[in-house]
Amino acid sequence: MSTGERVTRPNARRFVAGRGKYTDDFAFPRLLQIAYVRSPYAHARILGVDTKSAATMPGVVRVFIGADIAALCTPMTTIANHLPAYKSTTQQPLAIDRVTWQGEAVAAVVAETRAEAEDAADTITVEYEELAAAADTVGAVSPGATLAHPALGTNLAITAALNTGDGAAGMADAEIVVEESLVFGRHTGVTLEPRTIVADYDPQDDAIVIHQSHQVPYQTQDIVSRHLGIPEHKVRVICSDVGGGFGLKLHSYADELVAAAISKALGRPVKYVADRLEAFVADIHARDHRVKAKVGVTRAGDLVAFDVDDLAVLGAHATYPRLSVGEGMMVLMLAGAPYKNRHLAGRMRGIYQNKTPVGTYRGVGMPIGVTVTELMVERAARAVGADPLAFRRRNFVTQDMLPLMLPMGIKVPQLTLHQCLDKIAATMDYTRLRAEQEGLRARRIYRGIGLAPFIEYSAVGPWSYGPPGTRLTTQDGATVKLEPSGMVRCITSITDQGQGTYTGIAQVVAAALGVPVENVTVHGGDTASAPHGGGAWASRGLVIGGEAAHRAATELRANVLSVAGTILQANPATLTIAGGEIRDAANGTARMPLAELTRIAYFRQDTLPPGSQPELAVTRAYVPRDIPAMTSNGVQASYLEVDVDTGFVKLLGHWVVEDCGRIVNPLLADEQIRGGVVQGIGAALFEECRYDEHGQLQNGTLADYLVPMAAEMPDIHVGHVESVAPGTALGLAGVGEAGVLGSAAAVLVAVNDALLPLGAKIAQIPLTPDRILAALGKV
Amino acid sequence: MKAPNFKYARAANVDEACALLERHGDDARILAGGQSLMPTLNMRLSSPSLLIDINRIEAMRGIAVDGDMIRVGALVRHVELAESVIVRRHLPLLSDAITHVAHPAVRNRGTFGGSIALADPAAELPACAVALGASFVLASRRGPRVVAAEQFFRGLYETDRRPDEILTEARIPAQKSGTRYGFAELARRQGDFAIVGLACIEAEALRLVFFGCEDRPRLAREAARANGIPAIQAALAADLKPMSNLQGSAATKLHLARVLAGRVVGSLKVVGA
Amino acid sequence: MNETVAISLSVNGQRVERTVKVRQHLVDFLRSELGLTGAHLGCEHGVCGACTVRVDGQIVRGCLMLAVQADGATVETIEGVTETREIADLQQEFVGRNAAQCGFCTPGMLLTAAELLQRGKPMNRDAIREFIGGNFCRCTGYQAIVDAIEAVLNRRLATKAQS
Question: Which CATH number describes the domain made up of C85-162?
Answer without folding.
Answer: 1.10.150.120
